[in-house]
């Protein structure tokens, strides 16, 4: 499967886990979207470093654009393939959702025992 | 070994330098919950690491040997494995810091600062 397809799947899976599996529903909160806005800004910077310098390189048949890293266009956003946005969104949403889910469980356990 | 090989490490260091101080600034308990943090890294970072291993092995992406440190684990630079620890951590720290700010917590140097409230779980 291409990175393009997997990137979209990553977004869908993370949203499904947040909303219906863990029921953390962070995607309904202004707090999470504010945090994501900050994260995605720094993702563009740090990922631009990784991809613009060619620390990470992509094969052209896996992504929308070709393997040449350009600042903008041809499926690239600040040198990184746009697919990285799906990867990052999925990873960050899943991380925050799991953390919040575990926090809630810990608290519930604490109130039960006290 | 030359400085170029630290290029990927530099990016990870930048992420940590930017977010670790949030724990102090907003009184976050994230680093005081190592078990919860480890579980989060495992459950959230784990699947993405497996994806990364697969994508690297089929050649969808690759890493420049000149800009990464020499050690490889399952074909990945150590930095790439550290990525799946660092990014979940910085994501959680950013989110928790935003929740703290929305609950009224301010840095120690903030004018007219209120004391951080321990219960900001309801703040969204």
UniProtKB/TrEMBL annotation, chain A:
One of its GO terms (biological process) is carotenoid biosynthetic process. Residues 2-101 form the Lycopene cyclase domain. It holds the Pfam family Lycopene_cyc. GO terms for molecular function: intramolecular lyase activity; lycopene beta cyclase activity. Pathway: Carotenoid biosynthesis. Its main location: membrane. It is a multi-pass membrane protein. Keywords: Carotenoid biosynthesis, Isomerase, Membrane, Transmembrane, Transmembrane helix. GO terms for cellular component: membrane. It is found in: Membrane. The chain crosses the membrane at residues 6-22, 29-50, 85-102. Coiled coil: none annotated. This is Lycopene cyclase domain-containing protein. It comes from Nocardioides anomalus.
From TrEMBL, chain B:
It is a multi-pass membrane protein. Pathway: Carotenoid biosynthesis. Coiled coil: none annotated. It is found in: Membrane. GO terms for biological process: carotenoid biosynthetic process. GO terms for molecular function: intramolecular lyase activity; lycopene beta cyclase activity. The keyword Cell cycle does not apply. Residues 10-96 form the Lycopene cyclase domain. Keywords: Carotenoid biosynthesis, Isomerase, Membrane, Transmembrane, Transmembrane helix. The chain crosses the membrane at residues 6-28, 35-54, 81-105. The keyword Transferase does not apply. Its main location: membrane. One of its GO terms (cellular component) is membrane. InterPro entries: Lycopene_cyclase_dom (IPR017825). It holds the Pfam family Lycopene_cyc. This is Lycopene cyclase domain-containing protein.
